[in-house]
């Protein structure tokens, strides 16, 4: 279940090319552009109310892998339509790569079998440690293996549970649970189910009780919230866009009504509920600007009211407490997040008062509001903190969390009067551990859990690399404490660096396996990502993209200088938009790495940003620039675009996984990249007369199923 303001905050990373296969329960992202157009509010009878001219905006869904959106290829055409030359070429390339993969993959059967068995063994021990929980009074709801269970808080670890829902029983055996929302009186439960082959989710509403039963099924739903015990608001999703908000009732007279519609196709809408359930918010956001409308949950059939008309450059999100709106916003200097407040009755910007401002180079990961406290989950140069703001004593308590922790996972607290805040801490090599912050004791408590029988003598180190312009770039490094001669150990470097999104550092069984086998893992938090706040992203997008490349080079060179592996044992991993920096480094400094692993990579920035018919191209101009309107921008993109800069030289070996029906990264571009890269590598080898001249492996695995979105454990294991 998505909780707190993470739905909104993490999204400030905008149109997201992001890779997170196992974080099934995270979602949400913000995005849009500014243009004065009419949005429609409709009353509950369905008649159109007076049009109000407002600048529309949007919230983009959290894109787990990436977000370069493209059409499905090959496209379905009507009968009797001639097949174009480009389609024939595409089919020929596709068939050739599939045959090549079948031939190559057979050579790896033995090692594949060994790795799969090891990962399955690790998964048995770690599976139960990370189930997010929804605490509702004495009840705890949690999901495991496609089922939703109910238990009393004291019995949840004793196995005394009732099963409320099973994906198999409702005919969704190929889907996984993405989001859960419980109605305030716990009579209904709304669940979103998503298959691996589709971007759209299906919302199933269950009526709870002694014999839970399906009450309603709504297709193509993105976000949803209960306004009251029997009124649900939701957004519909079509072609990766959300533009309509609906209200559906479960009273004696059931009906569904369109409440809000966004007419500008560039914008995305989302709904969220304040912690005290006083207001439901309809959010419209771009990378730089926000607008929020409030639905009073006491009167769910009334029209929404505007908090603050959008002002260019100001992002804001809303929470509520004691008739005051608490506003998380970039308003004022510096342009980082601040917590402000204003009366509900006069919520305009002129009435916003500062409550708390973040320190420099601090990333706000999440925020949770309670009756007398507000908890901020923060990152500062790789370290995690809790800042607890007391509205009673008007004090702020800062708590540094364990040094091994790299990620928060906030558990759902539907009741804002709870006595504690529960969350999980994790890292790529540490399975999730539960913690609680007690408001009564003002202290942090590690929850007792069954010990996982995995021994990891893993050492966590945080380094700073000096980039080309002297900027210090954080690196997080993991290695086995028992390892000797680290300069001879294999190193796997991770990079992303786009949309203000942090590198995914949640637990993965395969990372733990690598540590146990002597590998070094390094995570480079380069500019363009969000690890050091909004300015860190701004300093690595558009005309600053090359800074991220310089950062990555500096990080790898520092690792080698410190004796952490060497180029011939170094591999680089990236996904989606991370493919831009990884691919660029292959062109500029191939001698630094021996192998590259790319997942659905974005490798042809220039050609993609020239195709305005693709769903997100116009929106993504805020990240990459507009080469069609700006010749300077075109030349700049061309200077780093991986596809455009392939040349005849010695390349590292490259392994790419792509998806045949990827709606975000068009497969055509990946196919063309692989062909061009392979040709350049072979040309370089043929020009050298040395016997035994090394030719890199350039391998493309095209998955017939799956999509650019999160997948099940089984599908991830097979990949």
From TrEMBL:
Residue intervals of the Peptidase S9A N-terminal domain: 94-443
Any Pfam family: Peptidase_S9
Chief localization: cytoplasm
Keyword terms of this UniProt record: Cytoplasm, Hydrolase, Protease, Serine protease
Enzyme class: hydrolase
Record-level GO cellular component terms: cytoskeleton; cytosol; Golgi apparatus
Entry's EC annotation: 3.4.21.-
Cellular location(s): Cytoplasm, Cytosol
Keyword Hydrolase: yes
Top-level division of the source organism's lineage: Eukaryota
Ranges of residues in domain Peptidase S9 prolyl oligopeptidase catalytic: 506-682
One Gene Ontology term from the biological process aspect of the record: proteolysis
GO molecular function: serine-type endopeptidase activity
InterPro entries named among the record's database cross-references: AB_hydrolase_fold (IPR029058), Pept_S9A_N (IPR023302), Peptidase_S9_cat (IPR001375), Peptidase_S9A (IPR002470), Serine_Peptidase_S9A (IPR051543)
Family listed: Belongs to the peptidase S9A family.
Functional description taken from the UniProt entry: Serine peptidase whose precise substrate specificity remains unclear. Does not cleave peptides after a arginine or lysine residue. Regulates trans-Golgi network morphology and sorting by regulating the membrane binding of the AP-1 complex. May play a role in the regulation of synaptic vesicle exocytosis.
PANTHER family for this protein: PROLYL ENDOPEPTIDASE-LIKE (PTHR11757:SF19), PROTEASE FAMILY S9A OLIGOPEPTIDASE (PTHR11757)
Protein name stated in the entry: Prolyl endopeptidase
Organism of provenance: Nyctibius bracteatus (Rufous potoo)
Lineage, highest ranks first: Eukaryota, Metazoa, Chordata, Craniata, Vertebrata
Gene it is expressed from: Prepl
